[in-house]
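Co-fold these.
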Amino acid sequence: MTEQDGKKEKIIEVALKRFSHFGIEKTTMNDIADDLNISKASLYYYFPDKNSLFLEVAVSIMSEQLDKQQKSLENAESVPEGLMNMIDARLAFAEQFHMMKIQDLQIDYFYKDKRFLELRDKIREKENIIIENFLDIRIEKGELKEIDAEKTATILNDIFMGIGVNRLHFCTGPNSLELSKEVINSIRDSIKDVINLVYYGIKN
Amino acid sequence: MTEQDGKKEKIIEVALKRFSHFGIEKTTMNDIADDLNISKASLYYYFPDKNSLFLEVAVSIMSEQLDKQQKSLENAESVPEGLMNMIDARLAFAEQFHMMKIQDLQIDYFYKDKRFLELRDKIREKENIIIENFLDIRIEKGELKEIDAEKTATILNDIFMGIGVNRLHFCTGPNSLELSKEVINSIRDSIKDVINLVYYGIKN
DNA sequence: TTTTGACCATTCAATTAAAAAAGTCAGAAG
DNA sequence: CTTCTGACTTTTTTAATTGAATGGTCAAAA
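Predicted complex below.
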């Protein structure tokens, strides 16, 4: 059993390289098998189909990513600093894995397998909870008002996601491959402004 | 001259009906000409090409829409009320004209003609200015802090747009035709929360 | 000045065939 | 028994073809 798990790990590791560079549609099961010096049939011994493999790869990098985001929040001195750290973690992730389109919405491919959408939603929920816990702590500490942490976390995440996806489209067009530093920084700047706005409010 | 303008107006009026129902790609110049009981060649006497006609139609409804949004802000008692009124105006517009995809970003078609993108950007700028003026007035009146109205307006618009487009994708999938009341209301609720969040802030 | 039928050029949609990729399986290898 | 594979089938992409539909033009008529 642990032997099989080790093998699966290796496959996931190699597959990740392909997926993160070429995306799911442009990497074939043969590519991955060749990289591993095994036959394609062997690959299918460990994974029932391509989507399942991709899904495990995605789960793998996402759980790591969620850990990073959580830590980036925990290590912060203030709410704006924490949120910006989290955003920076996300942007770094986007830069590294944007070819996998996990966070994006525009990719029709994801609508072909319900599990992808479920994963996306699950990630979203976990992110919300991470932010919610962070806010709860900061409420207890007296940094924040006695707001509804769950609701606020959801809204903040909605805003962050919306800004990111939207800006991406505006700057790079619908099916662009590149994800330049410029675009990343533009998103970062916008979100920074948003965080400040939400933090201090505008009411006199 | 005024005779020609009257004719153009009529064409725009009839074309709008087609465009708003079927979208730009599914309405042909023959459809429009037939509706008007003129030949296609006549249509081309008034408009050099299809995109130009569409563009004028879009400009026509957008200028009216911008007026509505401005008024919805002016007639409000408070900032949150004003912004929500504006959002309601936008959602009503989206319901009526979503087939024309003017506000959306996901449509590849729009990237075929630079003028569409320019119009989109111009609309965006005008919206920003409308919001900016609204905020400026409310700052003067003492309802709001002495914030940077221009910057704040831009950010708010960014947020609104992002939430809308994003929620649309989440709820209806990439190429959906329908724009249900449910989705509209879900967007509305989210944005309402955002406005409250920004208005009051979360800092203690 | 405005309109139009006839026309051209380009795009779109349906068809098909070939190639590539996904996925299967009986049996070999350890 | 677990793992692996070559050979195989099925499904999906891709490319080429073609006819129809559509965007766009123009000389001539009203």
